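Reviewer 2 asked us to include a model.

Predict the structure of this chain.
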Amino acid sequence: MPELVSKRAQVASIRRTALRALADYPVDEPRLTFIAHGENTTFRVESRDGRFLMRVHRPNRHGPGVDSRVAVGSELDWLSGLQADTDLSVPTPIRTRS
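Predicted model (structure tokens):
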């Protein structure tokens, strides 16, 4: 039987993951503020570079056997396409340094 982990413990663990991940982004001295935990976990990121949202996907969010990197990359491409080809107001994806 899997161990149940409280929502607070889940968010704390994901926050640590988010802080490590931010090292790969061009964001100077980021500060994280928790916003929501559900389908994804979302944080507001404030830095000298501005304010951003960071969404952390849960494992297997897209279903078993689906490559998360491909799925997330597709979402980012879709947002970029909507931004480039429409007048819709959508978030601007920020890619990692690599």
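Residues 78 and 84 are 10 Å apart (CA to CA). The first strand starts at residue 31 and ends at 37. We have added this to the supplementary material.
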